[in-house]
Amino acid sequence: MELTIAHLYPDVMSLYGEYANIAVLRRKLEAMDVTVTVREITFEDEPDVSGADFLYMGAGTERRQKAVLHSTSSCGPRLKAAVEDGAVLLFTGNAMETLGASVTDAAGKVWPGYALADFTTVETDRRDPGDVVAVSALWDAPAVGFMNKCSTTHGITAPMFRELPLGFGNEAEHGPEGYVSGNVYATHLTGPVLVKNPQMLDFFVRRLFARKGWDCPETLPEQPRQRSAYETTLRELQGRIKNQ
Amino acid sequence: MRLFLAAVVCRLLRFIGKLVGKGSSLPGKYALKICPDVLGRVKLPPCVIAVTGSNGKTSTVEMIAAILRAGGKTVVYNEEGSNQIEGVTTLILSNSTLGGKMKADVLLLESDERYARRSFKWFHPTHFVITNLYRDQLTRNGHPEWVYDAILPAIHPDTTLVLNADDPLVSCFARDHGKVKWFGLDECSVSTKEHHGVYHDGARCPVCCGRMAYSCYHYEHIGHYRCADCGHHRHDTDFAVTALDLEKGTLTIDGETEISLAFKSIYNVYNILAAWSVCSLAGVDKDTMAQIINNYILKNGRMVRFTLGSHHGTLLTSKHENSVAYDTNLSYIAHTKEPCEVLIIVDAISRKYFTGETSWLWDIDFHQLNCAHVEKIILCGKYVNDLAMRFDYTEIPGEKIVCCDTVPQAAALLQSDGAAALYVVTCFSDRDKLLGLVKKEEG
Ligand SMILES: [Zn+2]
Hints:
The complex is a heterodimer.
Chain A: E1 2-8, H1 19-31, E2 35-41, E3 54-57, H2 62-71, H3 75-84, E4 88-92, H4 95-98, E5 102-104, E6 110-112, E7 120-123, E8 130-136, E9 143-147, E10 151-154, E11 161-166, E12 179-181, E13 184-187, H5 193-196, H6 198-212, H7 226-243
Parallel strand pairs in A: 1-2, 1-3, 3-4, 4-13, 5-7
Antiparallel strand pairs in A: 5-6, 7-10, 8-9, 8-11, 12-13
Chain B: H1 2-20, H2 26-34, H3 38-41, E1 47-52, H4 57-70, E2 75-77, H5 85-94, E3 106-110, H6 116-119, E4 127-130, H7 138-141, H8 144-151, E5 160-164, H9 168-171, E6 180-185, E7 212-219, E8 222-227, E9 239-245, E10 250-253, E11 257-260, H10 266-281, H11 286-293, E12 303-308, E13 311-318, H12 323-335, E14 340-345, E15 374-380, H13 384-392, E16 401-404, H14 407-416, E17 421-427, H15 428-435, E18 439-440
Parallel strand pairs in B: 1-3, 1-4, 2-3, 4-5, 5-6, 6-9, 13-17, 14-15, 14-17, 15-16
Antiparallel strand pairs in B: 7-8, 9-10, 10-11, 12-13, 12-18
Helix pairs in contact in B: 1-2, 2-5, 4-10, 4-11
The complex binds zinc ion (ZN).
């Protein structure tokens, strides 16, 4: 069993240890006897995502995100083709915004997005970094994590998270967050989200097995301490919600 | 008149505050209510030095104060570390006449990166030292470029910037600014051709996002860089460490002054150089500076020695959410060659605000501890599972790693077992949990 991960622009878009998402996914797949190839897509080259099974991009600064939007106009059509070919896509942090129709920066300049979706994002000069607890539409356990955004995203009807007991959603406090359409997934949750959320990791492993047409076992192998780390964070954050 | 009233109220509240042991920002807060432009009305000393940056502010400021005082100057500075506008107001008014004239030769300010703009709306420093900009407390600060954008409007055209030439982002402050003095480290024994660390924020040019070429790295993204696309490059220095031997603990400034290091860390080298640069600009002579800096032991206590059972321990204070602070301490441990054990505590990520954010653990190069003389690594605290999982992604053999849920459990384990040198790496927010359980050593 062989599978290819395309990690887009890891030296431009990885501000919060996003490489760990790839590492943890890879180790999980390898524990299930999958041979994993990771293709790092560099910023200067034409983004070759052909044949990839999983497409990933993490968060960057506002300027880095614009650099990605500026010099990769060829990226949108290629991502679209890969997704139409059945590849599973996950963009986290402000990489999520690149999937939409446009990002308007704080100075009012409009940057066209990759246009895999028709949502739009507006940046502000206000930033509210903070912890997040998110109720998923796709798996049972609440997701935990962190967001560091200075934007609102409008026009999403199918979010990844139904509501945020803690945190700022696409366009409102506690509101719906992220984006899902077919095999395209995006969330503004930042950093190693697949490390922090074992159920989210399982979700994407199953999704990838489905993409490959492989039989997925009922229970997936667990990584030591991942679940207990998750439970600690969830307990801490829920305690905070109660105290609010 | 309002200035007078503000000064009186501030002094009075400061006096009461000291009696009841309350913090130093409240008097300034009331003074600002009475007279919002009070900082613009006070007559400041001829020399106003501000220091900002992600790491080393407090240590650098402390050293600058010591040098200036040895140089015969009276210095007022925010020793209590209250570096927002309210605290700065308290500091200034408490050290002024009621007519609003500051009684000092130098006003020295450790300035919060994010609030510099508010403080410097009414006055501006004559010298602004910017040490470095790293990933630091992203839960509060956003990210380094965001911090850069927050500092930029606080810079007045008349201010002399004293910049770390080796930091590509800090160097951007010199663009379109006339008065700049540069400090930096020549290529030396600590420099490497390859980048070390888990992430590389210097890989891309902060100006144009082009690929950056380094002729050498000192640590992380600090080194000698040039962008092939836009030409952004490390500037020639006005003050330089021209030779450095971290193992022996000596450095040479500008090819002529040799300094012995009480703490053999690359951090300390930059802090010393920053202090040297600005004090030199303030007119202190080289001999006086050298005398003070030689073997200077910081009072702010980032390093504490203690005994625990049969272990001699050294606590190396890092900052949670600051991978560079961790990395330099881990590097320090890796370069000691004697057998040792290492205790890492992540219990409360911050003492100032609540967060459960642990992404930063993945930015730390824990793999540095993969050396034979590090015999055992004890992980503990509320986030021990996050730590353990992070270590699982290094090549450090699992049998070297022991996990404890709480600090007392880890302390009990160390008390009963082993006699190797012990290094403790943790943050201000967690270190007292251990220091309460050990016997501190003097000096
Ligand atoms: Zn450039």
